[in-house]
Amino acid sequence: MGRSRSRSRDAALALAGAVLLTLCAGCDGGDRAAPDPKPSPGEERVLRVATASDVSQGPVRQRLIEAWDRSQPDVRVEIVRLPAAADDARSQLVAALQSGGADYDVVNLDVPWTAEFAAGGLIRPLDGDPLHGMWGRVADTVRFRKRIWAVPFNTDAALLYYRKDIWKDAAWRPPTTWRELDTAARNAKDHRQVRQTFPYGYATQLDSYEGLTVNAQEAVWSTGGELVDKKGEVVAASLDTQAGLTDLFRRFHGLMPPEAGTADERDSLEMFRDEKVPFMRNWPYVYNVLAAKGSKVAGKFGVVPLPGREANGASVLGGQNLAVTRDSAHPEDARRLLDFLVRPAQQRCLLEAGFAPVLKATYEAAGPRCSLSGGGGASGGEATSGEEAASGEEVTSGEEGTASGADGGAGSGGDRTGGADGEQASAAPEAGGEEAGSRELPPWTEALRNALGRARPRPVTPYYAAFTELVQTLVHGRLDNGGDEEKLAEDLDKGLRTVMEGG
């Protein structure tokens, strides 16, 4: 869990990594890979997988990898832990892969890093098309220069968490617009409106790290603005962008605890769980943590998609992509592991553990079962009844969750079928030597599916590290004082034009 005082060192490492990758931004990593080694029959091969700490219930990703490992008599998987903070993990990966001394075979990359690592010659392109049945925008995160460089492991879209138990008005419904959230947050301080008052209204992640870039991007989108458009052109110097930045600063000063300016995901989770705020932006994995037995808010909260200007808004598309490193000694084994992890039964385990699967079929009640005994993680809770549950707009927690901890579970399975970008994968259950999980969907499924339908990716660029560093520096620098959003938008526009050209 980083803090602002420690970010300067991390930022320097990230910037150094960006410079190293930029020097090779024209490289094509796949063409420089060494020939595949031919191990002797029966020789044990060690496959090294580098991944950040798992924040789901379980830990699901580790259990999935271990399930594959058990089915491979000649392969032993070694999991290498990276720092939990995304910026720190990226810096370590860049340094290790550039030095050539890491011996990683598979790396778990945050989605905006994929183009950067591909352009830097650190990962291999993949043959075939492993993207059938995936969300279209999720599949796009692994495409760069007309090639596929990774396999999406899990995706992500942020949700609005809200207290459902405090409102005196029986007809109260969670907000779908920022104006409605502003009103509800003010009402939560008024004992005439609520059974329990709150000192603040809303919590999110505004420390100087990737979470701030995400929140700034979502704020700008909610007012119709852009930092970088779909063509990769910088368009930050606009009235709509200024309006989004104004809203972000206004919410910070008017709705949030002061410590939100140095908050990450866990900090904002604690603000919500400790009943400082009735509303919070956070990722799906948080649901299981809040619903766990003993939590102050178990049974008292629900989730909906993020607010927007006139209706539900757009989350930044999150998630992780699995790539095979350029210098992998066992690329064929690595590819088999990747293919296994995105089969339907494994993806269903991710959903149950609090991750967002990349396969659309996984979100269907008639879809695959989790291949691990006992499922991928605890879901706990139930959907609301009536029109809200049917629409997928609102999901509320049950009286108790059934898990706590930091990760979730998973297993084996069969083949995946279906068309590209939007067609569902096969819903046939898969057997993996363990009792299959339940077909019951976790309570957040419909809200998450709704949010994923609106989610938007960050810029696909080999210069993303420099992009996010600039946004963090400029936006966080104005956070305490606010004001002069026109100058900030102009500074972002000018700086991003240099960044996106590799300067």
Overview of this protein structure:
This protein is globular. It is built from 16 helices and 13 strands. The longest helix is centred in the first third of the chain and has 20 residues. By secondary structure, the protein is of the alpha+beta class.
Provide tags for this entry.
about 500 residues; alpha+beta; five-stranded mixed sheet; about 10% strand; globular; disordered N terminus
- The total count of helices amounts to 16
User: What number is the mean pLDDT?
Assistant: 82
Shape: globular
- N/C terminus separation: 30 Å
Secondary-structure class = alpha+beta
> What percent of residues adopt helix (DSSP H or I)?
25-40%
Largest sheet: 6 strands, mixed
Q: N-to-C SSE series?
A: HEHEHEHHEEEEHEHHHEHEEHHEHEHHH
For the biggest β-sheet, the strand order reads 2-1-3-11-6-12
Low-confidence stretches: 1-36, 378-436
- Gyration radius, rounded: 22 Å
Report strand %: 5-15%
Instruction: Please provide the count of β strands.
Output: 13
In short:
The protein is α+β, with helices and mostly antiparallel strands. The chain has helices at residues 4-23, 60-70, 86-99, 114-119, 136-140, 178-187, 210-222, 239-255, 265-273, 286-291, 331-341, 344-353, 387-391, 445-454, 464-479, 485-500; strands at residues 45-52, 75-82, 106-110, 143-144, 147-148, 151-156, 159-163, 202-203, 279-282, 301-305, 318-324, 356-357, 395-396. The longest helix is centred in the first third of the chain and has 20 residues, at 4-23.
